[in-house]
Automatic annotation (TrEMBL):
It comes from the Eukaryota. This is Retinol dehydrogenase 11. The keyword Aminoacyl-tRNA synthetase does not apply. InterPro entries: NAD(P)-bd_dom_sf (IPR036291), SDR_fam (IPR002347). Keywords: Membrane, Oxidoreductase, Transmembrane, Transmembrane helix. The chain crosses the membrane at residues 6-28. The keyword Ribonucleoprotein does not apply.
Length: 279
C-alpha cells in the first residue's frame, strides 16, 4: 500500500511537471494573440511610392502586398529575382504599378548603383522600408571588408538611407524615421537558423515546437512595419521604437548619446560617405 501511494504521487508529480510547460505555452499564446498589433488605418496610398528591401519574401513581401493593395507604387528591392513576387502581388491586388530592382546590401557598390537608379528614374519616394535582414553569418566578411551580418543589417541600410534622403525630403511633407521589432516570427527565420535546427535532441525539438506554436505568422509580423508606413497616427512621430504597433522603449544602448554618436561617425567612415552625402 505504501509503494502504491508513492507510485501515485510519482505519477501526479510527473503529470504536473509535463503539463505546466504546456499550460504556460497556452497562456503565452493567448497573451501574444490578444496583444499583437493590428493595422487599423484605412489610408489610401494612390500616388505614393515605396521601396521595400527584401520585399520578395517573408515580412517584406507581406508589407509590399498591403502597400500595393492600398494603391501604392511599390519597388521590390531584393538580391533575388523578384518576378514571382511581383506576379503574385499583381494577381492579388490588381495593382500593376509594381517594380523589381536588384539590391545586394552586402555590397556597397550595389547599394550605390541602386540608389543612383532610383534617384535618376523616380520622381518621388514617400516610404523607405529597410526590411531586409540576415540572422547569422558567422565571421564571414564581404568584399568591402565588413562583417556580412553587420553590413546587411546596418551598414547597407545606413548608406542607402543617406543616398535616398534628398528624394524622401522632396516627396514627403515631413521626413520621419522610426525603428521597430516585429516580434518572434517563425516563418521569416533566416535560412542559416533553420539549418542549425536539429531534431536529434529533445531540446532542439522543443525549440521548434515553441517557435511553431508561439511565433507569429509573416503576416502578423508585418503589422508594425505597415502601421509605421501608412498610419496617420505616426505621421509626425520620429526617432521612436515600436513593437506590436505601439511605441516601445528602445534598446538600452540607444539612450547613450555618446555611444550612438560614435557608432554614427564610424558608420559614415566605413561606408565611405562623401561630405555632401552626410546628413
Amino acid at each position: 500500500m505504501i509503494v502504491y501511494n508513492a507510485y501515485i504521487k510519482y505519477l501526479a508529480f510527473a503529470a504536473i511537471t509535463v503539463s505546466l510547460p504546456i499550460i504556460a505555452l497556452i497562456i503565452l499564446k493567448i497573451i501574444q494573440k490578444l496583444s499583437a498589433g493590428k493595422v487599423k488605418s484605412l489610408v489610401c496610398l494612390v500616388g505614393k511610392t515605396a521601396i521595400v528591401t527584401g520585399g520578395c519574401s517573408g515580412i517584406g513581401f507581406e508589407t509590399a502586398l498591403v502597400l500595393a493593395s492600398r494603391g501604392c507604387r511599390v519597388i521590390l528591392a531584393d538580391r533575388s529575382d523578384g518576378a514571382r513576387a511581383k506576379k503574385k502581388i499583381i494577381e492579388i491586388t490588381h495593382n500593376t504599378n509594381i517594380e523589381t530592382k536588384h539590391l545586394d546590401l552586402a555590397s556597397l557598390q550595389s547599394v550605390r548603383k541602386f540608389a543612383n537608379d532610383i534617384n535618376g528614374t523616380e520622381e518621388r519616394l514617400d516610404i523607405l522600408i529597410n526590411n531586409a535582414t540576415v540572422g547569422a553569418a558567422g565571421s564571414k566578411h564581404t568584399d568591402d571588408g565588413l562583417n556580412a551580418a553587420m553590413q546587411i543589417n546596418h551598414f547597407g541600410p545606413f548608406l542607402l538611407t543617406h543616398l535616398l534622403t534628398d528624394l524622401l525630403k522632396k516627396s514627403a511633407p515631413s521626413l520621419t524615421s522610426n525603428s521597430l521589432h516585429p516580434g518572434l516570427v517563425y516563418g521569416d527565420l533566416p535560412l542559416a537558423d533553420k539549418h542549425m535546427i536539429s531534431f536529434n535532441t529533445l531540446i532542439n525539438l522543443a525549440r521548434v515546437i515553441v517557435l511553431m506554436i508561439y511565433g507569429k505568422s509573416e503576416e502578423e509580423g508585418a503589422q508594425t512595419t505597415i502601421h509605421l508606413a501608412l498610419s496617420n497616427k505616426v505621421k509626425n512621430i520620429t526617432g521612436k521604437h515600436f513593437w506590436d504597433c505601439r511605441m516601445f522603449p528602445p534598446p538600452p544602448g540607444a539612450w547613450n548619446s555618446k555611444f550612438c554618436d560614435a557608432i554614427w561617425k564610424k558608420s559614415e567612415e566605413l561606408v565611405h560617405l562623401k561630405p555632401e552625402e552626410k546628413l
